[in-house]
Amino acid sequence: MEGEYVIKLLITDLDDTLYSWIGFFVPAFYGMLDELSVILNEPQQVLIDEYKEIHQERGSVEYPFATLRLPSVKSAYPNATQKELRDILDPAFHKFNSVRKHTLKLYPEVKETLEKLIGVGIKIVGYTESAEENGFYRLKKLGISDCFQRVYVSDSQYERPKSFPSDAKTQIVHGRKPNPQLIKEVCESENVTINETIYLGDSMTKDIYMAKMAGVTSVLCQYPYDEKVQEDLYSKLVAISHWTDSDFKRELAIKETCKKENIQPDYKIRSFDELFSIIQSINNAKPQL
User: How far apart are CA 180 and CA 216, in angstroms?
Assistant: First the structure.
């Protein structure tokens, strides 16, 4: 494929591709849980089970203010207003925000590389399963939202306050990854061909499989990590996950398909700045007419 086209569009996943989502969210959530357990005088496991039920009901582990819906909270403060509850539980919310502030960081060279890509004429589009109030918020918080032409976000059951309107850059997507048809639609919307597009993500089942099915060049990020720490974070995430049994079965089925069909990324990177070199090598290989 090299030498036949020029890359004009980068479509990138956000969570665990541009920053460690699991590395900030799980510590922040469990920090909040510690505080909440003390405030309510309830065992953590009771609260974990309640959170999981709400997360599954709402379809997201990041559903805003799920804490206010916990049975233990309603039981402890049956007559409190929403504002009163937020005041009472503020130490827990503060703990989440404090941990997030210290742990939500871009991977090395992300901003610099995105800016270099823009500098050589590459359009950048984001595609995430996170809702706008979470995924796009993080891009703004991390100072890179201006790098994106558009960001495709998941739909959400969260009722957005009128004082917090949607950003003009975001577009809601119904359904979940892998969604190869959306990749094709993004290419059409950005007026580029499939062959002029490169997709970056961290998941073989959600990202690389989708990219392959869509026919775009795929890049899998495999950043170095502490395996023991990662396993601990993952087990804690599963304990509160919005995923149902059918979701886990779906994931397993896609993994089996990837194995059976020998799905492999076109490229792998261990640091984000390698992406620029890959795109440059593809574009420089185009024959001069």
Answer: 9
Task: Report whether 106 contacts 18 (CB < 8 A).
Answer: yes
Cα 16 to Cα 237: distance, rounded to the nearest angstrom: 14
- For CA atoms 178, 180, 183, 185, give the dihedral sign: negative
Confidence grade of residue 286 (pLDDT, cut at 50, 70, 90): low
Domain range spanning residue 224?
9-20+105-284
Query: Does residue 99 sit in the same domain as residue 114?
Result: no
- The answer to whether 150 and 171 are in contact (CB under 8 A) is yes
Mean pLDDT of all residues belonging to the chain: 92
Whether the bond into 287 is cis, omega within 30 of 0: no
Q: Is 59's pLDDT higher than 90?
A: no
Q: Provide the residue type at 143 as one letter.
A: G
Same structural domain for residues 44 and 177?
no
Total Cβ atoms within 10 A of residue 285: 13
Last residue within a domain, chosen from 47, 75, 103:
103
Instruction: Tell me how many domains the chain contains.
Output: 2
Find the CATH number of the domain harbouring 234: 3.40.50.1000
91-135 pLDDT, tens per residue? 999 999 999 999 999 999 999 999 999 999 999 999 999 988 889
Counting beta carbons within 10 angstroms of the beta carbon of residue 62, is it exposed (0 to 12), middle (13 to 18) or buried (19 or more)? buried
CA–CA gap between residue 65 and residue 80 (Å, rounded): 15
Same domain, yes or no: 272 and 131: yes
